[in-house]
Amino acid sequence: SVLNHKQCESYCSDLLSRIALNDNKAGMEGLDRDKINKIILETSKGSKFYENELKKEQQVNQRIEKMMEQKARITKEQLKQAQAEVDKLTCELERSRELGRVIVHVDMDAFYAAVEMRDCPELKDKPMAVGSMSMLSTSNYHARRFGVRAAMPGFIAKKLCPNLVIVPTNFDKYRAVSAQVREIFSEYDPHFMPMSLDEAYLDITEHLEERKHWPETMRTYYICDAKTGNDADRSAAESERDELSPVLFEDSPSSSPSLSGADRKAEVFGTSAEEAVREMRFRIEQKTSLTASAGIAPNMMLAKVCSDKNKPNGEYRIPPERQVVMEFMKDLPVRKVSGVGKVTEKMLAALGIVNCDQLGQQIALLSLLFSGTSWHNFLHISLGLGSTCIERDSERKSMSTERTFVEMSDAEEQYSLCRDLCQDLAQDLQREGLKGKTVTLKLKNVKFEVKTRAFTLQYAVCTEEEIFAAAKDLLKVEIDSVSPQPLKLRLMGVRVSGFISAEDKKPLQRSIMGFLQKGGSDSGSFTQCAGSVLKAEEDSDGASFLKPQATEMKQSFFQRAHLSNTNSGTDTTSYVNKPAVLKPSFKISTQVLPFLTCPVCNTEMKDVNLTAFNNHIDECLKGSAVDNEPTHLDAPKEQEELNRKPPASSSESRTLKSSSHDPSCNEEKPSTSISVPLVETDEDGDFKTPFFSHRTKTNGKRSVLSKKKMPVCESSSKASPTTHNLEAITEMSSDSNGSSLTCPVCSQPQSTDDLALFNRHVDMCLNQDVLLEFRESHPPVGHSDEPALKSVRGQQGSSPLPPSKKPKVLSTKHTIDKFFKGNAGQKV
DNA sequence: GGGGGAAGGACCA
DNA sequence: TTCCTGGTCCTTCCCCC
């Protein structure tokens, strides 16, 4: 309402470049673009999608503005220097120009649509498309005359062509046809490079060499009987052209133009590249009743452009001569080149560059405005250069799955969907035997804004649990970041990337059980145990909080565990007696261990199930926190009960966390872990205990245990939650008259006549180096000078972690990490 | 300053 | 009423060593 007419026009023209018809496709020449664009615009206008496209367009315009400002600042001298550099590079590129390879790009014509038309001949003469009302995958050439094309929503296509028939996709069918086509490709190049179900690059150089010596019989193909598929026994009548080209494109050339008589039965193909490719297309057509187009050139870039030249059912060849290549490139619009999309096209157009000839003339300028990668690419294009080596067996870099749905605002539903996606992805990964380190969550909100949030683990993962453990934390941060408003999503995706190489796939890490078992043989890799044995520490609401550090922590723990175990030959059972100190944030599995001592009530348990042990500790902590009294159950009785108990659900398990009973406690504040030891330092921050002499950067405040009860959540600069927590534990461990206390580290009863003495004992029990580092890097929660976590992307709207979530388990990471580092090979 | 992770975006079929 | 899915690569920002 505030825009004037001119601005409106400008906005519309801006938008047109983004959502207007892209007629850069075969079969779409000479359309009434204005009319089509008007319909597209009217149908789209006002939608969230439209608004988002407008926003993106404005961003591109800003980029262009910046670029133009930059251009205005370029001096003649700079340009001259740049030109010299470009000339030098051009000479080098010319010297290394390779014209000796014969590269072919084969592309099936309107593939999905053609398959559907083949299988349902009544569609042949109708405008049709494959896809849904939301999105079309492809359209036939009848539909293209109406402006209907791939990547267009079906409802817009229906506006353009009300009679359009939309057929749902059937990928199993397309895959089967694709396999047939690929069989033929492999006969011309066994190492061909498939790009998708319907296209591939081939290097037929070797084939042509051999082909030269082939007798005619090896280059003769009989016309297939379309009814029986038998290509050895055919009558002349069955070889009518209708059967040769049964499906599509009445105007297109046949792949067998020489066949034009009643006695046509066989086709003899020559030895040239064109003939070999025509033969290949002929065979594809005979085998599948579908047509393909092809480009033949000295490199992949040119071959790709050529395959589009005579679509459908045609081929085009650029001979291996520099002059011809340059001539071909001269008038070629930059947008025809693979890799130049609408944004690049628009930016180049702003500089007056539309075709490749203009591109070549402006490389010096481009070298000052674009990145090195970009302008090098432009230079290659302008010279008609491209890859001459088809990358064989290139490895997959990532795998993902995503789903679009109607608006979803319910967090529980979102977590559930997230798990489903992780499950699907895990199955795909396992099917291909892949494991990756980076888990990425992709979210698209109802405004069509896309966000990706990634976390890189230290070890590769592939199971549903492992992937979900990371993905759900990423999701939680996003949900929390808009809380109390709901996160309104329309798409969610999960990706795993950073695949490990074959040699890395060997299990390097022992599982926690392997670690805990006496002389235990490794039961598997870390990744196997990570999902099933370990669980991220869980928040009171049952969902784990986001903590990339936590995952790192888990891994550090295992790494250390492994190192200490394998490097030193430590008796692993020696750790078993003190599991609570080592891994307070972990849920422990159902493995039965011979001997465990509860660090809270000091009960010894024999042959106890670890989950049950965990539950016991939870109960002890809970009971103590609520009652402020130690929980002392009759050990044998309790053990019996524990062994009967089923494993706790992940949402219930909060191992070794003390919970707050202070009504003033902000629920955002994390409950704290007992993992961080107390440290006693002198005024300079040096440790008082004799065997630690590091100087700390902290203020040297002395942490002491006091009998005075302090609320766990009351975090201040005076007392860290760690102090409170240990205090709580200590209180829990004291007997009723307070004359003795159980050390939470060594579990030995200690006299409490002198609390300072008890404090010192605890200090001695702990590796204080741990706390030193912890305190240096992680000030207590709520500390006034706590640094705010910075957003990774700064201005780009990424969500910083909620401050309250940060230090929860960082302590554990350092504790455990350092603990093992400092105690490798020692008994704890 | 370089390496590497995270996030966003361009581009492709 | 309704604008996908799955992939690669590049750029930018930021942190850490």
Can you describe what's shown?
The protein has 828 residues and is of the alpha+beta class. The longest helix is centred in the first third of the chain and has 26 residues, at 48-73. Mean pLDDT is 63; it is low at 1-9, 226-253, 257-263, 502-595, 620-741 and 751-828. The strands form six sheets. The protein has a five-stranded mixed sheet. A four-stranded antiparallel sheet has the order 11-14-12-13. It contains 30 helices and 18 strands. It folds into six domains: 76-96 and 321-382, DNA polymerase, domain 1 (Orthogonal Bundle); 103-120 and 170-317, 2-Layer Sandwich (Alpha-Beta Plaits), CATH 3.30.70; 395-503, Dna Ligase, domain 1 (2-Layer Sandwich), CATH 3.30.1490.100; 507-581 and 809-828, no CATH class; 587-654, no CATH class; 657-786, no CATH class. The protein binds a DNA duplex (13 and 17 nucleotides) through α3, β3, α7, α14 and β11. InterPro entries: DNA/RNA_pol_sf, DNA_pol_Y-fam_lit_finger_sf, DNA_pol_Y-fam_little_finger, DNA_polymerase-Y, DNApol_IV, PolY_HhH_motif, Rad18_UBZ4, Rev_trsase/Diguanyl_cyclase. One of its GO terms (biological process) is DNA repair. Residues 232-244, 629-644, 777-788 have a biased composition (Basic and acidic residues). Residues 103-341 form the UmuC domain.
